[in-house]
Predict the 3D structure of the following.
Amino acid sequence: MNRETLFNVVLLLALLVAPFVALQMDEPFYVSLVTRVAILALAGVGLNIALGFGGMVSFGHAAFFGVGGYVAGILSQHAFNYEPLVTWPFTIEGTNQMLVIWPVALIVCALLALAIGSIALRTSGVYFIMITLAFAQMIYYFAISWPAYGGEDGLSIYVRNGFPGVNTMNPMSFFLICYGVLIVCLVLSMLIRDSRFGAALQAARQNEVRLASTGIAPFRIRLVAFVISAAITGIAGALYADLNRFVSPSSLSWHMSGEIMVFVILGGVGRLFGPVAGAALFIVFEFYLGGVTEHWQLFLGLVLLCVVLFARGGLIGLVAGRARHG
Amino acid sequence: MADAVLQIDGLNKQFGALKATDNVSLDVRDGEIHALIGPNGAGKSTLIQQISGLLRPDSGTIRFLGRDLAPLSVAERAQRGLGRTFQVSSIAPEFSALRNVMLAVQAVDGSSFRFFRPVMKDRRLIDAARAVLEDVGLSDRADIIAAELSHGERRQLEMAMALALRPKLMLLDEPMAGMGPEGSKQLTAFLDALRRQVPILLIEHDMEAVFSLADRISVLVYGKVIATGTVEEIRNNAQVREAYLGEED
């Protein structure tokens, strides 16, 4: 087992054990803190597929995170009020079942990413960053100005959505659900990275012209990766809405896009567990430094600066050295 | 000319006031090495870019295996058998030599939209890629990260990636550039043998290599083909001597 694998295993175990320890210490608040790490890490795992593997610097992943959250919020509000979502041409009821909400969030975010990606991926570099940002901001302002689902005030989920056989209101149970989804998506992300598709995607980042001259069109590869990336971030958004039992336009704002990007960069761009390490570090900073000073983001900024200047591989790069592609 | 693999007719490309490609017509036939020579800035690379699809011509046609290339993208042209190397080696620097070639094998061997099976367990990809690396003499460097290969080895790797496509035509943009005398000699011998597998359009500054390899030579000056012919014909062409070879006498 090499050092990176070892670090990954330790990280996953620590994440799993932390809430149990917290319960033992009678500090249930920490359970929800660790749940937040798991969910934000999941959002980062999504972005990492686009940003880390494919080199697509999306500054608009909050769009998918927020839309995923609104899917959860809107469906459960309709279920709560016994109001169908649509009555014509056929009736679509709301739902409070996660197993229905997740696929809906996944499909909605995938379609959205297909539309955004088809346009944004015709550009590259700064223009790509700006177009993804612009789309996310459009959706943000749309959410603010649409009163049906709370507008600026956001939308509350009165009872956390359900999962068969599990009492999701129990913080520990909800954590385990989030943890499980995170593991599934990490495995998915690993399979993608090592597959033929992943090889083409990483080649598109390294040398686009070479990939094309080899007979593989970079655009389609990137677009599919962007869609997968968005779908995973969307599911994270749905879970986040359930964690807070609340979703607001702020989850769609560019601050959120920036934060997801920070998770990926802090942990190590393109490293499988980079987003997990990054999200954990971020929350630790936010919680402990935030307890000391309200200007904690200044220190986060300094850390980020150091990572970008001196440790391109992020935390995982520091621990395990440079990435190996075999 | 039934045997023309590549047929270029009346090709024009203008950048502002500069005619980079001026009514160029030429063809590459089966089994031959057709060398394209000309002074710096004559438009050789611009021509290659148009053939491979990175640049669109203003007018004129390029036919490859009887088919008009105009509507096809770079990737589609490569899939139809247009292999190329670049003036500056173009590879995926973070991948090992083997994985670089596997990428090319994967491009012709079915789909890149496979998400779950690890490529490093894909025997078909690995075996085919190793065989090509063997052909270009790079098999003992297969597991080295491409960025760490020497200049000459990167050239070989690029050649391997182009060959892995099982190309119907090779476009080689100054393959000898930056190679030592020993490397040039080896590459010359390699290309000499390669022409039996695949016709080659060779852009090259190394006159010794061109004269020993080429079946036909076209001379490009200021975007215009001023002469096409055998090595002897080009050597004895007064216009060519004046425009180009004269400098070397």
Chain A has one domain: 3-320. The domain at 3-320 of chain A is CATH 1.10.3470 (ABC transporter involved in vitamin B12 uptake, BtuC). Strands of chain A lie at 155-156, 246-247.
